[in-house]
Design goal:
The chain is α/β, with parallel strands linked by helices. The chain is 52% helix and 10% strand. The chain has three domains: 50 residues, Single alpha-helices involved in coiled-coils or other helix-helix interfaces (Up-down Bundle), CATH 1.20.5; 213 residues, P-loop containing nucleotide triphosphate hydrolases (Rossmann fold); 68 residues, no CATH class. The structure holds guanosine-5'-diphosphate.
């Protein structure tokens, strides 16, 4: 990142679809330097003046489910059909230097070679909130650059699925066929946010087993959907490696999106996601501000000890803490989306 960031030039470069400008703009929105936040905001305000209707798809699945193979194959297919495809990732465990698991260029080697594809690894960081924010903002950058299909990949662990579901239109889960309990390995909370399921590796000797797994999953999903909006979640089979039934899976993604638009309305759905996002930003910033003050950290440690020793009640201690926090609020700088004392 150059020391002097020329935001208008960056905006122009992104709008023209120049890769170097896109990469630099994403580096800016990912930056954790407080001085970069106002510039990132200015950039995003400029870039989002016109709404886009890019297809936003989240892809999840346990490691080994075939996510990168699928994105590599599907991405190429979509590029062949005339789309511009961007691949982003949310992996809070990734550190750039330690070798990011997701979005790694070598994992989607063929796709990254294509002119109309842009693959970006997960931003590094252990806090899901920060990683999710950076990916969400990177999505706005690539959309402004003219990418019309955005794939956001996430690993099948932790809360990252929920974060990704909160930024995409359709959430696709890649499952594997395993004999016995097909729901094993798929956490309940994830089924509830899943819009389309594809049982991958349906090729060779495994094809029959995959079909059985898909049927069983489909029955299991009926129980989940009864509690939700009543929409039937399609369960398909595919082979990312041999490129079998990829068009059918994409068709299911598009059909879900059309259904969403006809029922809730895509614009309304995205607006609602923004509302949820606003709340999570408020909470994250508040927590961040509480942790950023040494005085508050010391007080918290003392209060913890008092509660543990029975010198004060939890309720009283939390009141003491919040009162002290309130006295510090006027000195906090909230302008940058994070507080600095
Ligand atoms: P990820 O960890 O979910 O990204 O999974 P990968 O895409 O890295 O795939 C894990 C392994 O499964 C690799 O050895 C792939 O070649 C293999 N694989 C992925 N998709 C398929 C498929 O459709 N069929 C078969 N037979 N193997 C696959």
């Amino acid at each position: 990142m150059p020391r002097k960031i020329d935001v208008p030039a960056l905006v122009e470069g992104v709008r023209e679809g120049r890769r170097a400008a896109i990469a630099q703009a994403i580096t800016l929105v990912e930056s954790r330097l407080p001085a970069h936040r106002p510039l990132a905001r200015q950039l995003l305000t400029e870039l989002t003046r016109e709404p886009t209707s890019a297809v936003r798809v989240g892809i999840s699945g346990v490691p080994g489910a075939g996510k990168s193979t699928f994105i590599n194959s599907m991405g190429q297919r979509l590029v062949e059909q005339g789309h511009k495809v961007a691949v982003l990732a949310v992996d809070p465990s990734s550190t750039r230097t330690g070798g990011s698991v997701l979005g790694d260029r070598t994992r989607m080697g063929e796709l990254t070679q294509l002119e109309n594809a842009f693959v970006r690894p997960s931003p590094s960081g252990n806090h899901l909130g920060g990683v999710a924010r950076a990916t969400r903002e990177a999505m706005l950058v690539v959309e402004a650059a003219g990418y019309d299909v955005i794939i956001v990949e996430t690993v099948g662990v932790g809360q990252s699925e929920v974060a990704v579901a909160g930024m995409v239109d359709t959430f696709l889960m890649l499952a594997l066929s395993r004999s016995g309990d097909q729901l094993q390995g798929i956490k309940r909370g994830i089924l509830e946010i899943t819009d389309v399921i594809a049982v991958n590796k349906a090729d060779g000797d495994n094809a029959g087993e995959a079909r059985v797994a898909a049927r069983e999953l489909s029955i299991a999903m009926k129980l989940v959907t009864q509690q939700n909006d009543g929409r039937r979640v399609p369960v398909l089979t595919c082979s990312a490696l041999q490129r079998i039934s990829l068009d059918e899976v994409w068709q299911a993604v598009i059909e879900h999106r059309e259904w969403l638009d006809e029922t809730v309305g895509l614009a309304h759905h995205r607006a609602q996601q923004q509302v949820v996002w606003m709340h999570s930003q408020i909470e994250a910033t508040l927590l961040d501000s509480m942790r950023s003050s040494q005085q508050l950290r010391d007080l918290r440690d003392r209060l913890e000890e008092d509660v543990r020793e029975g010198r004060t009640s939890a309720l009283e201690a939390s009141g003491d803490f919040l009162r002290e926090f309130a006295t510090q609020v006027p000195q906090m700088d909230w302008a940058q989306g994070r507080t600095v004392l």
